[in-house]
Structures are given as C-alpha cells and as structure tokens.
Amino acid sequence: MNERLENILSISSALRFAQVDFEAIYKDRDDITPLAAVEIYLSEQLKIKTEKQNAIRRKRAELPNEKTLEQFDFGFQKSISKEKMLRLSDMTWVEQAYNICFLGPPGIGKTHLATALAVKALDMGYSVVFTTVDKLIKDLKTELISSQNKRKLKNIYKA
Predict the structure, then answer these.
(1) pLDDT (tens digit, 9 = 90+) per residue, 40-58?
(2) CA distance to 5, 19, 37, 48, per residue, from 1 (Å)
(3) Measuring CA to CA, how many Å separate 58 from each of 19, 36, 38, 118, 132?
(4) Cα→Cα distances 8→16, 19, 45, 55, 73, Å
(5) Cα atoms found within 13 Å of the Cα of residue 132, Cβ hemisphere only
(6) Which of 57, 27, 25, 55 has its CA nearest to residue 42?
(7) pLDDT above 70 coverage of the chain, percent
(8) What three-state secondary structure class fits 3?
(9) Both ends of the chain: CA-CA distance in Å?
(10) 3-class DSSP state for residue 124?
C-alpha cells in the first residue's frame, strides 16, 4: 500500500472518520486539484455520517413498519381527507412543537397515517418516537424502577 494512503488512513481513524473507498470516489478524476480532493473526501465523510445518523434515528423511532401517504387508501377512510394529511405532512406543525395523536377504533388506518408522518419527519432529519398510549402510560409509571424505561422516556422527551 502507498505510504501516503496509509498516512491518510491513520489520520482518518484518529479523527474517527469512516473508511472510504478512495478508488471509487476518485475514479475518473485525473485532473483534480488538492483542494477539490479534500472537498470530495469531506463530502463523502459527511454523507456517511448523515446516513449513520438517519439509521440511528430510524431505530430509535420504533416504527412498526414504514408506510407512506401514497400507500394509504383515502377512499376507505373518508373521515380524513388527503388534503388534510398533505397539509400535516408539510411539517410546519413540527417546528411549532406540536404532537399529533390519532384516535379511533381499530382498523381505520391510524397506525398507517402516524407512521407515514413519522417517516416523512425522519427523512427531514427530525427525531421521532412511535408509541401507543398504553405503552406510554406503562413507561411513565415504571420510569423510576426501570432504567430501560428511563431511556425510552428520554428519547420521547428529545423527540
């Protein structure tokens, strides 16, 4: 291995940068300037870091499944219009620190709509936690006893 490449790899690991395939990111770039090379490398590092953060946020969200609003059958559920859901999905309510709760009997699409909004928020970089009222109350009651519930509630408070 090239001595310069080894040096770059050791510096990258000291800075806790992710491993990057240099051959792939600099392929077909023969006339690249040193400044452009650094920019490409740092852009790749930022992309890797963003993907890692998105994966962590998705895991913490505890979504039962990932759905979209396009998959929802608004013809089946007439109590909420597609326009209302699209207005909710523009995420202005998130910036105003509102929470959304869907109430109703089983089988009407509450989970689908909630997960669709959650996926949209996750894609925009927000933290999300999906939970039911029963689970939330149980976690609140056992917060002082269980460190696991304390962590769950900490994630809920952050979101």
Answers:
(1) 888 888 888 888 988 998 8
(2) 7, 15, 19, 24
(3) 23, 33, 30, 9, 17
(4) 12, 11, 13, 27, 53
(5) 8
(6) 25
(7) 98
(8) helix
(9) 45
(10) coil
**102/67 Cα distance (integer angstroms):** 16
Q: Say how far apart CA 119 and CA 110 lie, in whole Å.
A: 14
Read off the tokens for 30: 């023969």
**Please, what sign has the CA dihedral across residues 48, 50, 56, 61?**
negative
In one-letter notation, the amino acid at residue 51 is E
Residue 156 in this model has a pLDDT that exceeds 80 = yes
- Orientation angle between helical segments 110-123 and 34-61, nearest 10 degrees: 160
Q: Are 26 and 2 in contact (CB under 8 A)?
A: no
* pLDDT, tens only, 4-46: 778 888 888 888 888 888 777 777 777 777 777 778 888 888 8
Helices (H), the chain: 3-14, 22-25, 34-61, 82-88, 92-95, 110-123, 133-141, 147-158
